[in-house]
Amino acid sequence: MGCQQQTFLRRAAACRSGCLSRLAKCLQYATTRGALVLGLVLLACPANAQTPATGTVTIDIDASPCCFGGPGTYGYYVINVNGFQSILPVFVGGNSYSSLAADMAGLITSGCNASFCAGQPNNGESPYVTAVAVSNVITLTARTGGSATNYSLSAFFGFGPGNGVPTITPVYYLPTSGPTLTGGTDMSVSGYINPKYLIVGVTYAPPGSQSSVTYTYSLLVGSNTTINNSFSDQTTLKVSVTASGGIGGFDHGQATGSFTNSYTQMSSSSNAVTINKTTQVSDKTQGPSNSIVGLDHDFDVVWLWLNPVVQLSFPAPNPRALTWTGYGFDQSDQPGLDILPVYVGWLNGDIPIPSDVAFVLARHWASGLIWGPGQGPGLTGPGPGTDFANIVQADPFWRCDQVPSSCPTSPDPTRFTLADSQNLVYVQAPPGGQPITQTYQFQFSNMTVIGQQTGTTESQAFGLDVSFGGGVFLAGVNVDFSISDQFTSTYSVNTTNTNTATSTALASITGPTCTVSSGSNTCSPQYTGPIEFEVYQDNQYGTFMFFPVNGAGGAPLSMPISTSLPQSLSGLPYGPELLTATGGSGTGYTWCVQSGAQCVQSGPPLPPSFSLGSKSSCGDGCTEVALSSTGNPPPPVGSYPFTVQVTDSAGGIATQPVTVTITQGPTNVSGQVAVTSSGLAYSRVSQTFSGTVTIKNMGTTAISGPLQLLFVGMPASVTLVNATGNVSTTPYMTIAAGLAPGQSVTVNVQFKNPSNSTMNLTPAVYSGSIN
Amino acid sequence: MRFRSLLYVVFPLALAPCAWADPITYGVTVDTSSISGTTGSLDFNFNPGPSVTQSASLQILNFTSAETLVTCAANVQGFCPTGDVSGTLPGTLTFDNGTAFNDYFDGFTFGTTISFDVSFYGPALSAPDGVSTSSSTFAFSMFSDAAGTIPALTSDLLDGFAATIGVNLDGTTTVTNFSPDTGVSAVPEPSSFVLIGTAMGALLWFRRSRPRVSGSRCTKEPLA
Is B213 inside any structural domain? Predict the structure, then answer.
């Protein structure tokens, strides 16, 4: 037995007597790390118990042929219960029948518990025997625990001279008579677990600080929440109860069946629980404090129940099957359900938690309970592996603000169903105008899918490796309680939507106001996010979620690029430098450069020969745009500031000022030379395509060196192995000498082309240096 | 009369070089006796240049060897051809320069000799367009390993080519031979033989049809 186990047993022994709840606290020591993670703590001893099965065996002492009661006579008796055999010595000589009977009763019990019963074929069920002598007839009455009935029961008594060591084969033996042991009734025993929290709902923030969604009638936990197969028992329970009687419940617990408050609980069946929010209380979920932000899932709300008690029962017909019987709550916290709305931003660490909220989440009222190493009453977080991290994932959009790229690009079709209502509009007021407010009424639609598994399945396991033999729990109840192995609790939420009109909500959506600077006719700041949202119902929690039309999670459109692009050499190709937009609707991007009241793809304020174009073939769907230049005509040296603007399909606009600096470059002499090239033979040795390029001066004037041979149009997958360098993304080779009229020069070229891309280069030749 | 007859000879002879324009064929012979028995590989590729390249094709014909080729299915590369290549050795292989990499690679156990013909044809040879800026190149390589990484019988240790034949922008070809064990020689086309034969026949006919001069200086009258 390990040290940790011994510690556990010592602590458990201290709790051996007393009420069930105290025992339960002892068992907390056996909770595992899984319990900590899930916030579930075992607070009670689920137990199974039976009224004892009984039977009688009568031994007629005088039926022995001789010797009973003679000096130095030792006897023994053997009792068989359901194949389990107990052999015990008794001192016979000089005993009265009554004292002999007393010895038999006591010995059989102690002997069995000491060594004999454990591990026997009948699972160690201890026969409990009483012996009563009436004249020369001793009647043994045996009782057993366990779930089985109709145990076989037999006994015989033998004696003879000896030293008290019994033998299996008696010198004499007494025939016994009696019926088969029959009877026995399992008795249900209840218990409980109280998690640190339960998630009862998720409500989603609408866009805009002046917007809100009010749930006027809803099931806070969404709908009928069915706990299926809540507990699977993978253990061997060894329980015997030697007296009838009830076992009380949690000493701080209060069943909520008759409790009335803003929130009430109803148990519709033994394993389904519905928590309704009464119509007198309305829950209002508002948008972010800054309307320009638009939609921000940090302001989604997770509704937590902080003092739940989960009631369990071991039903009589099947004592190993734990059954969920409903919820209660711990009155040590408050005389009612403690339900707290918690912002996603608090849980994911984006927004500091107010001190008063942190105090409630700390659950100080539970600090008096006994907690295992590393465990405590309060909810932990934020951070990986904490309670907060587990809770926040109830909202699929919990990371949209932190990591927009991880935000779902479309709602999970199992979890969310498009509500049968018009799209929600969120537009900024025009300059000089008032904000636009629109109201919507949402109603949860009847679901055709019954029992849709939308929840998460969580498990906790706790080991119980201790036996509480003979402990008195309540008056009149003796329990021999022993559980070994592992007991696994599986928390599985099945959301069943079977009723109509179970949830309604009113949404009031107000767009951002428009502040106009003096002399301007545009809003500052300008709302650049999505203006249209689809409304989805959350099938798990019966609430409503707002998703940008064609959106990528509602992140505002932005252009996170450097404001200073690489400098350009006049006359040389430039780019493509890619500008990237994130967020927004995700489709239908159009790009331009602001030019006064217009927006252009080329021309001022872009430098000559520069243009803004969609990247490759993705067209308007591109989140990237390429700023590039052919180098011709060569732009004048200088600095060119301009503002890039991107608009998405929802009308969201983002702008980014950037600057391109043009410096003096070499002279383009491509028109004076002829550039030809050989075929490219592939070498398996060097794994390159090799050939030659020849430049011939076709003019009548000399071209001064150095010459720069640019391989314009090189596919991205192709590399010029022996390049001198790159101008933007264009590789080039430097040839030191110039060319006299009619003179030519040939250079070797080697390309890496792992994807065998077709090349269609347009070599360009420049005279001068590239710095 | 003499002038007209001379034309019969000169004209076919003048046409004879035209027979080289389409196709152009080279015979390639390799003495592989120094690596006989080696399990290696052969590689043929015919690729365009990096810029605009006019269409051209070639065929590998009459492949003969003292040893057998590894079948393509058992080849270490899995498949012999890559790109615009059809056929299987020792049969005829047909390449064109339509993709960037047109290659035939085959496992091979060397014997004492390899020989084959390479025949070039297509617009780039028969009708150069004058605007293309890249030509095409055929490369032949031998390797002493099945993976094709160790060049054999060549002085080009950098790229491992035994010989290359470039199709120039003017329709001519250029042979570069890196292998002292490899011979690359032009093979006249049958049409050339016909023209040359015609010319030679005409010349013979011309000579025979010349009128004999009576009382020739070579003829001596018998003395009375």
Answer: no
> Which domain does B5 fall in, by range?
1-20+189-205
Residue B159 is nearest to which of A685, A759, A761, comparing CB atoms? A685
For residue A756, the chain B residues in CB contact (below 8 A) are 82-83, 99-101
- How far is the C-alpha of A690 from the C-alpha of A158, rounded, in Å? 106
The answer to whether residue B131 scores a pLDDT higher than 80 is yes
The residue count of chain B comes to 224
Strand blocks (E) in chain B: 24-31, 39-48, 57-65, 81-82, 85-86, 93-96, 103-109, 113-121, 136-143, 161-167, 173-177, 182-187
Count of CB contacts below 8 A, A vs B? 108
A289 is written with which tokens?
């404090």
Question: Cβ of A683 and B160 within 8 Å?
Answer: yes
Does residue A684 sit at the B interface (CB-CB below 8 Å)? yes
Contact A685 B157 (CB under 8 A): yes
Instruction: Kindly report the pTM of this predicted structure.
Output: 0.43
B170 shares a domain with B78? yes
- Residue of A675, A682, A753, A757 to mutate, interface with B, max B Cβ within 10 Å: A682
Q: Are residues B96 and B35 in the same domain?
A: yes
d(CA A446, CA A441): 16
d(CA A267, CA A92): 61
Which pLDDT does position A620 carry in this prediction?
52
pLDDT digits (tens, 9 = 90+) for A305-355: 787 665 555 454 444 444 445 556 677 787 767 778 899 999 998 899 999
Give residue B29's pLDDT.
Answer: 95
Give the whole-angstrom CA distance, residue A324 versus residue A269: 9
A761 CB within 8 Å of a chain B CB: yes
What would the DSSP string read from start to end of A180-226? PPB--EEE-EEEEEEES-EEEEEE-PPSSTT-EEEEEE--TTSSEEE
Residue B210 lies in a domain: no
Q: Is residue B169 part of a domain?
A: yes
Q: Are B11 and B109 contained in the same domain?
A: no
Does residue A378 contact residue A365 with C-beta atoms inside 8 Å? no
How many angstroms separate the CA atoms of A271 and A315, rounded? 12
Complex ipTM, two decimals? 0.81
Q: Is B51's CB within 8 Å of A761's CB?
A: yes
Say how many CA atoms lie within 13 Å of A536 toward its Cβ: 20
pLDDT of residue A361: 93
Asked whether residue B197 falls in the same domain as residue B118, the answer is no
pLDDT in tens, A228-278: 323 332 222 222 222 222 222 333 333 332 222 233 333 322 333 333 333
**Tally of domains within chain B:** 2
Q: CB-based contact (8 Å) between A345 and chain B?
A: no
Residues B101, A689: C-beta atoms closer than 8 Å: yes
Per-residue pLDDT, A519: 67
Looking at the structure, do residues B45 and B1 belong to the same domain, yes or no?
Answer: no
Within a domain: B43 = yes
Query: What is the nearest CA distance from B99 to chain A, expressed in angstroms?
Result: 6
Buried b (16+ CB within 10 A) or exposed e, B107-122: bbbbbebbebbbbbbb
Interchain CB contact of A757 with B (< 8 Å): yes
Are B200 and B132 in a shared domain?
A: no
Find out whether A39 and A375 touch, Cβ atoms under 8 Å.
no
Q: What angle do CA A319, A126, A472 make, to 5 degrees?
A: 70
Q: Are residues B144 and B169 in the same domain?
A: yes
- Strands B85-86, B93-96: parallel, antiparallel or unpaired by DSSP? antiparallel
Strands A437-443, A339-343: parallel, antiparallel or unpaired by DSSP? unpaired
Report DSSP state, residue A512.
P
Using the 8-state DSSP alphabet, how is residue A365 labeled? G
Query: Distance (Å) from the C-alpha of residue A681 to the closest C-alpha of chain B?
Result: 6
Asked if residue B175 and residue B71 are part of one domain, the reply reads yes
